[in-house]
């Protein structure tokens, strides 16, 4: 089986909270976000066998407890991702996926086969803005909604151990927070500082203000302060690792 490979980070302490993991990137993505951290992985080709990629994962085995698959969009390569997840399970590793939710059938099969432990679902904006903002057809929005509904149900049933919804925020899109929060009242909710070109990103204090408005625990991620858990005006847990470092490491593959 040929897999369109995007890169490998042998160890990461921020891609899965509480775990040391390696991160595997797969190429290809049907959604071209303007703020994508890895735009070079939206296309192109670097074909590898599953055995080659599993050998990379095995090389980190003594230092990690899990693997994160990212991209690009890893669920776009359904058969490849399932084969890699099976290989990770054979090594005794946890499996997580960072996804935009455009391929719900991949997530459904991973869960049905007990091959996944964490889904990190990136919701881009409120549903009615998806077609215009991301320049996608309306049926793509429906697929993301299907992924969200499925993952929430699997998480509530216990067939998916961890599930988090991430919203990457830019100035002018602050109103999306309350809308998306109402869509996901019962899962981990992450406010991620969007960084794009010369646009001044929202500050940590501005993101805290948005969290105060929705009155629920959130995780706030910024390049300056790393990740913190925030609730009722208080920082509960702080992560000292700055995301800038890991974003730079991701490009060194």
Total number of strands = 11
Quaternary: single chain
Average of per-residue pLDDT values: 89
C-alpha-based Rg, rounded? 17 Å
Number of helices: 8
In percent, how helical is the residue content? 25-40%
Cα distance, first to last residue?
A: 21 Å
- Strand and helix order: EEEHEHEHEHHEHEHEEEH
**Morphology:** globular
Low-confidence stretches: 240-253
Q: Note the main sheet.
A: 11 strands, mixed
Class computed from helices, strands and strand pairing: alpha/beta
**Residue fraction in strands:** 25-35%
Features:
disordered C terminus, 8 helices, alpha/beta, 253 residues, 26% strand
Structure report:
Helix content is 33%, strand content 26%. It is α/β, with parallel strands linked by helices and 253 residues long. The chain has an eleven-stranded mixed β-sheet, with helices on both faces. The longest helix has 20 residues. The two termini are 21 Å apart.
């Amino acid at each position: 089986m040929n897999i369109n490979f995007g890169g490998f980070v042998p160890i990461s302490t921020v891609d899965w909270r509480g775990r040391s993991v390696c991160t595997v990137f797969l190429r290809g993505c049907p959604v071209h976000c303007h703020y994508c951290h890895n735009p070079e992985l939206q296309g192109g080709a670097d074909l590898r066998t599953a055995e080659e990629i599993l050998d990379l994962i095995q090389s980190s085995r003594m230092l990690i407890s899990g693997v994160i698959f990212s991209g690009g969009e890893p669920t776009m390569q359904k058969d490849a991702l399932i084969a890699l997840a099976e290989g990770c399970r054979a090594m005794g590793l946890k499996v997580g996926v960072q996804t935009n939710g455009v391929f719900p059938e991949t997530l459904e099969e991973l869960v049905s086969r007990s091959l996944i432990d964490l889904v990190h679902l990136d919701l881009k904006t409120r549903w009615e803005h998806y077609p215009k903002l991301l320049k996608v057809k309306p049926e793509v929005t429906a697929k993301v909604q299907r992924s969200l509904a499925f993952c929430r149900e699997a998480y509530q049933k216990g067939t998916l151990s961890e599930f988090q919804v991430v919203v990457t925020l830019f100035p002018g899109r602050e109103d999306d927070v309350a809308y998306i929060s109402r869509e996901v009242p019962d899962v981990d909710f992450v406010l991620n500082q969007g960084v794009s070109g010369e646009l001044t990103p929202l500050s940590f204090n501005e993101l805290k203000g948005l969290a105060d408005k929705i009155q629920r625990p959130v995780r706030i991620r910024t390049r300056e302060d790393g990740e913190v858990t925030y609730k009722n005006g208080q920082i509960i847990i702080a992560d000292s690792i700055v995301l800038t470092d890991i974003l730079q490491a991701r490009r060194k593959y």
